[in-house]
Amino acid sequence: MKSTVALFAASLLGMAIIAPAAAQTVTGELGSPSATTTIPGDQLPAPQPKFGGEIENDALKSTPWWAPRIVPPEDAPNILLIITDDAGFGVPSTFGGVIPTPALDRVAEMGLRYTNIHSTALCSPTRAALITGRNHHSAGFGVISEQSTGFPGYNSIIPEDKATVGRVLLDNGYATAWFGKDHNTPAFAASSVGPFDQWPTGMGFEYFYGFVGGDANQWQPNLFRNTTQIYPFEGKPGWNLVTAMADDAIDYLNRVNQTQPDKKFFIKYAPGATHAPHHPTKEWVKKIGDMHLFDEGYNKLREQIFENQKKLGVIPQDTQLEAWPSDVIEDWDKLDATQKKLFIRQVEIFAAYAAYSDHEIGRVIQTIEDMGKLDDTLIIYINGDNGTSAEGGLWGTPNEVAYFNGISKMPIDVQMKWYDVWGTEETYNHMSAGWSWAFDTPFTWFKQNASKLGGIRQNMAVAWPARIKDKGGHRDQFMHVIDVVPTILEVTGIPAPETVDGITQAPIEGTSFAYTFDKENEKEPSRHKTQYFEMMGQWALYHEGWLLSTKVNRAPWEAFGPANPDPLNNQVLELYDLTRDYSQSQNIADKNPDKVQEMKELFIREAEEYEVFPMDASVAARIVAPRPNITAGRTEFTYTHPMTGLPQGDSPSILNTSYTFTAEIEVPEGGAEGMIVTSGGRFGGYGFYLKDSKPVFLWNLVDLKRPKWEGPDALAPGKHTIEFDFKYDGLGVGTLVYNSMSGLGRGGTGTLSVDGKVVSTEKLERTMPMILQWDESFDIGSDTLTGVNDADYKPPFALTARLDKLTLKIDRPVLSEDDIKKLTAAQAAATDGAAGEATAIDGQPVQVVQPGPH
Question: Signal peptide: which range, if any (predicted)?
Fold first, then answer.
């Protein structure tokens, strides 16, 4: 029996009737085990329905009654939401690129190409906007979680009044799953003790298989199933997350389909590609290498992509291509032979990674077709969460961790040492910025640059065979990733909830683009009229075809210099009419001063509404700024039991400080080996271990140097106390961050002692200033993922001595009152416009920030 009811069903089931409640559909006989119902959706979870049976003193005289199972509206589609990483407009073949992306091609041919959708210019901010339907500052993600600061728009905490689309669909009867990159869990809430409310499983996704941070080693990732770390790659040479993730998604889809064929699914599929490290398999490297796509260099590549885009009709024929930025990136013809050889290797690995990832996405789509569900599945495939990354710097790097520690131009001859293993487990690689500029064609600039279309303009293909009939059509309406959630809600017939868990929900801030699915709306003006952009002090405002934007004042690889003290006003403003100037190439600000002022005032109103203030132009400085790490305020740590997997954001930091490790161990007869404590891995970190019964403390300085303190004698069987003490020479970051990153990463003296006797002393000229390898963890008693010194050991390198106690004491530098006065005066001077002329301490220009525990 099937009956369609509205208010009557709501009343019968004891559910609140609050406009705008959706009509309900009940199938089966109410009270029977097989009955289902949709829900009004205004209140999540739906109220418990009133018991509809009869209860007497004994069961034989009573009438049982089961609450109906909640299901989505009958015509709601399955949903596959795909978003790739660090890929600009000119990357995929679907939109004129030279890298083959047949899966994206397939979606576009089944449905529509979208050429005017925008991101936030950075990864986790875009992803927070994507899953909430709110602007990135509204969702707490003004920057990535590793840069979070203590303001509502920047704390990396998605507020409870902005429930994700996963939670909404879950409570409306969908099976929900998330595969791949998360990066919306605060870095200070990513440990095994939680809390887990900001993990995918706490945000409405029943199943999660992926990594929590911003990037991942695809050969040995920091991988989780739900909230449990897993190591499926151990003992499997050639294992790669790109394939493993597709395998797991395919397994999940088949499991749902075989268990409950009529259950609708919502999958967020977010591969790590093409974020660094670029880790494709050898098969894909050969495929791309054999195509010789890049032999003529990045200048020619840009021209080729531009011509392809015009032929495909994904850009207007009169689009202007700006001259190559020779003042920023050297022309290809001026490079020497070694540079060209290295750079071609870099980009072929990148392209192989992109093609490989798209191929595996294609396998997931094929699985949906094989289940007979493709017609009823809405596929949204977004190419990139921001423009192509230039975080490898002008020359690229074999180790992105080096970039995040201020090494933005590693010498070519040094990089060539990794030429033959580029893209393998021996590198954490990123390509040079010339390729990144080309892959953002026809626009300029990169990821991080929120004022340029190269940083924020993405493209997208959408298919829903049962609904979208304009196969292969193009749509050019202005859109933003915040528009995805309201689109999903509209096509599913599920309203945005008024309350979730009793918390009143903030309005959805995006605009549905479901109207574009119809051919008759192909040329309808965009319904999304106004949109702000802001990222680390660079900002823009779109309004009805106009774009006001700040002139780029910082390249992505320039993250360590003085920050603009007044990013709202201390800017050169540019104005563009995008209805006539598709590529943002003709600045007409001088001709339209009134429009510039009008647009700036509108930007300020938008910024005030969506919690953009206080604006902050600092980049690297925010990585070392205080935040609520669970170790904050502690100076002593004691461990008596092996423990692995504590992420960097939740472990004690020994950067820019003095510290002492003391290990009390017992060596068995026959000697011992193994890891006592380590943090980081092959691309940056430290290890305190026994090698052939000799104590060793080693620093891996971004895979370039490995200073080592080693005892000369093997430890005799029995109890020993071994200690590594490091005296830091710098000021530290307790109550300040440096406007010049040269103030961090100072040197110091390390001393290794055994049973109170000094056995090794060495002075370091420099130390790591910013981060260790952040996809690796703090481990005691063994070493997970990669090791800090491949020459000495291979993980897991379990400790065979007995560890009685490990103590870490941290002695952070403390500023004097006089120092703080100088710094406060320096900051005041900078605020008055004297940036870069601030009073310094010990020769280092600095900036005071809000005090707090580190």
Answer: 1-21
65 and 131, same domain (yes or no): no
Please write the tens of the pLDDT for every residue from 12-40: 333 332 234 456 899 999 999 999 999 99
CB 355 within 8 A of CB 101: yes
The C-alpha atoms of residue 550 and residue 212 are separated, in whole angstroms, by 32
Cβ atoms of residues 46 and 39 within 8 Å: yes
**Pairing relationship of beta strands 175-181 and 207-211 according to DSSP bridges:** parallel
Residues 730 and 738: beta-carbon distance below 8 Å: no
Is residue 848 within 8 Å of residue 839, measured between CB atoms?
no
- Predicted local distance difference test score (pLDDT) of residue 821: 64
The pair of structure tokens assigned to 414 is 């040094």
| 550 contacts 513 by C-beta, under 8 angstroms | no
d(CA 378, CA 109): 14
577-633 confidence digits (pLDDT tens):
999 999 999 999 999 999 999 999 999 999 999 999 999 999 988 888 888 888 888
Helices H / strands E in the chain, number of each: 16, 37
Burial label, 670 (beta-carbon count in 10 A; 0-12, 13-18, 19+): exposed
In this predicted structure, the answer to whether residue 256 has a pLDDT above a threshold of 50 is yes
Token pair 């390898």 in the structure block, residue: 773
Classify strands 69-70 and 36-37 as parallel, antiparallel or unpaired. parallel
Q: Are residues 694 and 830 in the same domain?
A: no
Cα 18 to its chain centre, rounded Å, is: 38
Residue (of 358, 353, 217) closest to 277 by Cα position: 217
Task: Please state the pTM of the whole predicted model.
Answer: 0.93
What's residue 168's pLDDT? 98
- Residue 437 shares a structural domain with residue 571: no
Query: End of a domain among 601, 623, 645?
Result: 623
Overall domain count for the chain? 5
- For residue 691, the enclosing domain spans 636-811
Q: pLDDT for 410-435, tens place per residue? A: 999 999 999 999 999 999 999 999 99
Per-residue model confidence (pLDDT) at position 648: 87
What integer pLDDT is reported at residue 704 of this predicted model?
A: 95
**589, 623, 657 — which closes off a domain?**
623
List of residues 6+ apart from 736 with CB closer than 8 A: 815, 823, 846, 847, 848, 849
Q: Residue 835 in contact with residue 572, Cβ under 8 Å? A: no
Q: Please give the structure tokens belonging to residue 313.
A: 């009709």
- Which runs of E-coded beta strand occur in 325-440? 377-383
What is the reported pLDDT for 743? 59
End-to-end Cα spacing for the chain = 63
Please give the single-letter amino acid code of residue 650. Answer: D
